[in-house]
Amino acid sequence: MISPYVRRLRLGIEMRTMRAAAGLTAAQLGKRIGRSRADISRLENGHVVDQADVMKILDVLSVDGDRWTQIMTIAREASEKGWWESYKTMGDRQAMYANLEAGATCIREYQQTFLPGLLQIPEFVQARTEAAATLEPMAGTPEGVLAGRMGRQRMFRRPGGPTYEAILDEVAARRLCAPPEVVRKQLYHLVTAVNGNPKVSVRVLPVDARIDGFAVPRCTFSIYTYEDPGDPAVVAIDTVTVDPILTDPAEVDPYKKQFARLRDAALSEADSLDLLTKKAAELAEDA
């Protein structure tokens, strides 16, 4: 399935564009279909989807044929419930990431602090869940978080799943964010997951890297792109308590440029895997 969240955004863009082309305000269009201006605004901003309202609007705007079919297909996909809806205990933040990952063709991620979530082993997930719970109340259960993470990884590995490119800050590979024996196993898993897999790439950004323009990254972020060129690219920013989502091209483009500069400054994939393997071996020696 395609991300319902992204399809809601796409539907809003299409509806707003058609209304403007017809020379109608949101209030005028709402009046014609028996809805308020606020109802139209919520639809155009991607907050709600009512397929019956969409059909009424298309009728008012005299939209038919292939264009009608296209818009109603988007509206149907925007209304779908994802697999994550059945995992209420995985937490709202993780559910949003699962939503964004659905139907993505490419995921690019810069990880400043932790090891990539889509490549985490269960022991690492459990350790990070316990650590996060010391800072804020859990928005799920440990079992739910783990089940959600495993579900996301199954969808990631699905036939026709996305390509995945992660830039991992060297600090994230060296600073312990879980017990040493767990981090050691996790690092070895990272190397194994990347080796020989053309769809997965992990590269390390050295602490002494010279980034073009000295554009040092400020935060961890992910970029999601989709097959339909009309669907917006999305950036998710990872913070302590919330994950802001950006969809405006003017806000998304700087992150695309930032990622490209980080990629250029990172170690080669072979050197990156060597660094991760050596770090894992060091942890084994320290055990």
Task: Explain what the structure shows.
It contains 12 helices and 6 strands. The protein is α/β, with parallel strands linked by helices. Helix 1 packs antiparallel against helix 5 and helix 6 runs parallel beside helix 8 (142-156). The longest helix is centred in the N-terminal third of the chain and has 18 residues, at 4-21. The termini are far apart. The mean pLDDT is 94.
Which key terms come to mind for this protein?
six-stranded mixed beta sheet, 6 strands, alpha/beta, 287 residues, 12 helices, single chain
Provide the β-strand percentage band: 5-15%
Q: Profile the largest sheet.
A: 6 strands, mixed
Cα(first) to Cα(last) distance is 44 Å
Which structural class do the helices and strands define? Answer: alpha/beta
Give average pLDDT, whole number.
94
Number of strands: 6
- Low-pLDDT stretches are none
Binned, the helix content reads 40-55%
